[in-house]
Amino acid sequence: MSIAEEVNCLRRIPLFANIDTSKLKLLAFTSERLSFRSGDILFEQDEMGTCAYILLRGEAEVIIAGPGGPLAVATLGSNEIVGEIAILCDVPRTATVRASTDLEALCVPKDHFLQMIADFPQMGLEIMRSLAHRLEQTTMRLREVLAAQAT
Predict the structure, then answer these.
(1) Alpha-carbon gap, residue 74 to 63, rounded angstroms
(2) Given the DSSP bridges, would you call strands 32-36 and 81-82 parallel, antiparallel or unpaired?
(3) DSSP type of residue 91
(4) Tell me: the pLDDT tens digits for 106-142?
(5) Residue 131 in contact with residue 80, Cβ under 8 Å?
(6) Is there a contact between 10 and 54 (Cβ–Cβ < 8 Å)?
(7) β-strand partners of 41
(8) d(Cα 32, Cα 9) in Å, to the nearest integer?
(9) Cβ contacts of residue 16 below 8 Å, gap of 6+?
(10) What SS3 string covers 10-37?
(11) For the residues of 45-79, what is the DSSP string, one character each?
């Protein structure tokens, strides 16, 4: 995938929709492109994060450690971002993310991600929207699982 194709992928993510093309090119150029095979781990719950991942192609599942073992709480696809909580809050990863198909992603270093937020404050609003939506979906999934376990 070329830088131009990566920029087009970034542009489809609401977080980056209003960012200048030149900044997106710089972000794509300074980010590391990674390939994962189905079953590969992008990162583990409780490890410290050094980057956020932008999924370019493929799918991944978000897994949390539960009392009964690992619990898949979400599926992510192309043009989604994951891992930003750890770098925004300087906390360990809140979940494990595993490729459920072959996957290509950009690994955006923490300092570049934070600089983009500083340069483009509207990104902060999009991050809040994204995190609120993700929290809502995770809460719904946990309620479903708990209800199923209660029966």
Answers:
(1) 7
(2) unpaired
(3) -
(4) 999 999 888 888 888 877 787 788 778 878 887 887 7
(5) no
(6) yes
(7) 98
(8) 15
(9) 10, 24, 27, 123
(10) HHCCHHHCCCCHHHHHHHHHHCEEEEEC
(11) TTSBPSEEEEEEES-EEEEEEETTEEEEEEEE-TT
